[in-house]
Automatic annotation (TrEMBL):
CDD domains: SRPBCC_CalC_Aha1-like. This is Polyketide cyclase. InterPro entries: ASHA1/2-like_C, START-like_dom_sf. SUPFAM superfamilies: Bet v1-like (SSF55961). Residues 23-159 form the Activator of Hsp90 ATPase homologue 1/2-like C-terminal domain. It comes from Aeromicrobium erythreum. Belongs to the AHA1 family. It comes from the Bacteria.
Length: 161
């Protein structure tokens, strides 16, 4: 399994997931740069993602929805704030309505995804920071830790294809 560590820091309002992949940094980054590849790993296996807009450059916007087992849709959006290809990118991530517009009152996270070479592949460090402890707790209660772990664990299959 790629996920090697999960850390919740309530004082800093962060969730950090570390994973390791048997592929070079540029190959791991390419998954996030290509919406068709990203669809295969963004979201738990039972909630596949569909990316509608995907502009992975500073100032770019990404919109997507995940489809649940009973056909229900859950939207999301990113505002890309920095890109340092292939070493990582930063973005704000939030919940979206049926028109893929931000949902007021739902948690928004500031995210840093970093990819660094290690012997035999890449170490990825995914850090999400929330404005309040309540927002972090809300997404933890919604299952973000388990969902993220199962999504990230799909990357090995994609890399092996």
């Amino acid at each position: 399994m790629p996920v090697t560590d999960v850390q919740k820091d309530l004082d800093q309002r962060t969730l950090t997931i570390t994973a390791e992949f048997a592929a070079p940094v540029d190959r791991v980054f390419a998954i996030y740069a290509d919406p068709r590849q990203l669809e295969r790993v963004w979201g738990p296996p039972s909630f596949p993602a569909t990316f509608v807009d995907h502009d992975l450059r500073e100032g770019g916007r990404v919109t997507y929805y995940m489809t649940g087992p009973e056909g229900q849709r859950f939207g999301g959006w990113w505002e890309v704030t920095a890109v340092d290809a292939p070493h990582g990118f930063d973005f704000r991530d939030g919940f979206a309505d049926d028109d893929l517009q931000p949902v007021e009152g739902m948690p928004v996270s500031t995210n840093t995804f970093r990819f660094e070479p290690i012997e035999g592949g890449t170490r990825a460090v995914y850090t999400s920071t929330y404005a309040t402890l309540e927002a972090l707790q809300q997404v933890i209660d919604m299952g973000v830790e388990e969902g993220s772990r199962s999504a990230i664990d799909q990357i090995d299959v994609l890399l092996a294809a």
